[in-house]
Amino acid sequence: MRHAALDAMSASHATVAHVDENVLLQRLRWRVAIGVPIDWIWRRFDDGTINSCSWHDIEGQRAIRERRYEPQVPRSPVPTAAITRFEERTGTAFPLLLRRLYTEVADGGFGPGYGLFPLDPPSEHPRADSVTYLYDKHLGYRRDSYLQGCDEPLIPIADHGCAITSYATPSGVVWEHDPNTDIERAVPTNKSLHAWLTGWLGPAPTGQRS
């Protein structure tokens, strides 16, 4: 009976986690659909600090309603096969949530910093920042000493400017490297990918389901 109860509890926790992940993906799709008001924010803040104004605050919502910005065109999600090719070629598994972000929401362009990298660079710019190009460039981020402090491979996912980069591990933990500090290596943020994205989204705006 005790084992049955533990199995039921484990299944319940898995269901809650899946529901929470589905809610997160729903909010991210809504966020991508309305466009990223980067142009408006750059006009509003001369220093170009993207995160100075959260998209969900009152002024940001008003700008969205009044269309006082040029939204980015949402990128289409990538086929699952594209993720599988990367995993089979590199031997590095995408965390499940990251896989769902690329295959169910969009091919990057949203999220903390300047947004998630696209999975692959465009054919006309093969060295453009992207998950596959940056991963291959550094041989899975094992060659560079500042990225050798993690027992798992580090998948580059976002740029924050000033060479600050975020990474995700196959287990879904976000790491960050900031070469502008005295810390020489990438360090864990102690945030899951889910928490990292939820922090960027902030509270659900009025009229959107949380």
TrEMBL record:
- Tree of life domain: Bacteria
SUPFAM superfamilies assigned: SMI1/KNR4-like (SSF160631)
What InterPro entries is this protein classified in? Answer: Knr4/Smi1-like_sf
Protein name listed in UniProt: SMI1/KNR4 family protein
